[in-house]
Amino acid sequence: RTARLTLDPAFTVAPVPRRLFGSFVEHMGRCVYTGIYEPGHPSADADGLRGDVLELVKELGPTVVRYPGGNFVSGFEWEDSVGPKDQRPRRLDRAWRTTETNQFGLAEFSTWARAAGVEPMMAVNLGTRGLQDACNLLEYSNHASGSKFSDLRVAHGSKDPFDIKLWCLGNELDGPWQTGHKTAHEYGRLAAETGRAMRLIDPDVELVAVGSSSRSMPTFGQWEDTVLELAYDTVDYISLHAYYEEHDGDAGSFLASGRDMDLFIEAVVATADAVRARGRHSKKINLSFDEWNVWYQSRPHHMPGTEPWDPTEPDERAPRLIEDEYSVTDAVVVGTLLHSLLRHADRVHIGAQAQLVNVIGLLRSEPGGPAWKQSIAYPFERMRHLAVGEVLQVGVRSDRYETAQFGDVDIVDAAATWDEENSVLALFVANRDLSESAGVSVDLRGFASLTAVRSAEVLAAAEGQDRHTTNADQHDAVGLRPLTGVEFADGRLRVELPPLSWGVVTLH
Ligand code: AHR
């Protein structure tokens, strides 16, 4: 298998958006409870924040973290989660059919976000609630003092405002599963009016309108069109959500999931720009891809059903929901999804991988036990740290393969960035072939200052492993190792990628 790539400093897409490498913490399963928060864990601090998980989060380095849902937010009453912990009510969470103890709430998230060095991205409940409650929450969070809700925050012990700038106007309200599901018209009006009122409290907020829950939603396209018609002047971003999995052993289509992401992004950009043209608007609506990942939705899981709540169930407050264990294959797919986001950096300004811990998590943690990185954490972490400067256009001439879902697809998929200030080029590259290695030749003649390979790493099945190997038993089984045989001479880089692999090469 072979591929020829061409990069040139003159052909760029956009600066790497700081918020592209975000993640998501939802009150779901064990993401919060026994994920980031576990009083009594040997590594927990006085606030109950798990130190071992926090350290891993700092290594991953998500720039922005969406909170508190997800489907959870569409029934959430934020007032339950603030104030003295012993006075916070236990509430039935309809989304995941668990009992929410509210022992972790807005102030605790703010403390955790500061400790983790992440920007909070807050979602308001536009499922069962509306404009006034969103404004109350914003007043509680961002107003200094001298008003009912800001003074309440101060009385609760948080003198300084949380100062949250990025707000999601609801979650997946196009989905019939969502509490308070709406038509595009109902939602568009609500988003427009809620956003307008929120800006009167804090003119600096940035607002994300709910887009489609996937490209296969029956309302996809029409939803974005109607919502943006109604809310164009008020919002800054429209959201996209997408989850991928391997169906019936069709690894070829699964490995090409990035193609679906490309098509999804390009369709939403086209729709947003059509509304822009029709309305003679000057501003552009950008994209917030604020839920994406591999998620084995069709496998049997401990998913909430229709059974009644059982208060005697010991783990009802943090059940094991959708704790997918990720393999080598999943890590390669996640790498290519990140490539897609990066290649569209001119319009995708926010990304949030879903979710951070345990629930389809980058990380896993056991109650009272260890925490570790899943295979998918490695491409995320490397791209988060090495994608610096300008995103480059990548000219690709690759051998192709036939997929059931997407037709012909490139075997080699890539993205690249150029950090002119430090003269560092980063190439992120995947080989989708399951059995053959790929010889990748990269024309870098335009980068006169590059003299040598700085680093080269690869994620692939190691000796004795196969594409299904995960980190479930041996927590460091799948990860990055040195990529050998990398050559750079006369402006040409040559890389030999093992079968089914994701790699990163930097040059300086
Ligand atoms: O991330 C898990 C769930 O997936 C979220 O709660 C919801 O928004 C999406 O359907």
UniProtKB/TrEMBL annotation:
SUPFAM superfamilies documented for this protein: (Trans)glycosidases, Glycosyl hydrolase domain
Key word Hydrolase present: yes
Matching InterPro entries: Alpha-L-AF_C (IPR010720), ASD1_cat (IPR055235), GH (IPR017853), Glyco_hydro_b (IPR013780)
All copies of domain Alpha-L-arabinofuranosidase C-terminal, residue ranges: 290-501
Superkingdom in the source lineage: Bacteria
Record's keyword terms, sorted: Carbohydrate metabolism, Glycosidase, Hydrolase
Signal peptide span: none
EC number: 3.2.1.55
Reaction catalyzed: Hydrolysis of terminal non-reducing alpha-L-arabinofuranoside residues in alpha-L-arabinosides
Alphabetical list of Gene3D superfamilies matching this protein: Glycosidases, Golgi alpha-mannosidase II
Keyword Ligase: no
EC primary class: hydrolase
Subunit structure: Homohexamer; trimer of dimers.
Family: Belongs to the glycosyl hydrolase 51 family.
Protein name from the UniProt record: non-reducing end alpha-L-arabinofuranosidase
Protein source organism: Kineococcus gynurae
